[in-house]
Design a protein that fits this description.
Mean pLDDT: 90
Number of helices: 1
Radius of gyration: 17 Å
Structural class: mainly alpha
Largest sheet: none
Distance between the termini: 51 Å
Number of strands: 0
Oligomer: single chain
Length: about 40
C-alpha cells in the first residue's frame, strides 16, 4: 500500500519536473535565439 502510494507520487513528481524542464528549455532557446528568428 505504502509502496504503491510512493510510486504514484514519484511518477507525478517526475512528470511535473520534466514539464517544467521543457518549459525552461523553450524559454532559454527563445532568450538566446537571434532576433531574426522571431
Amino acid at each position: 500500500m505504502l509502496y504503491e502510494y510512493l510510486s504514484q507520487q514519484s511518477k507525478t513528481i517526475v512528470k511535473y519536473i520534466s514539464t517544467q524542464y521543457q518549459s525552461l528549455l523553450v524559454l532559454i532557446h527563445k532568450a538566446t535565439a537571434p532576433t531574426s528568428e522571431k
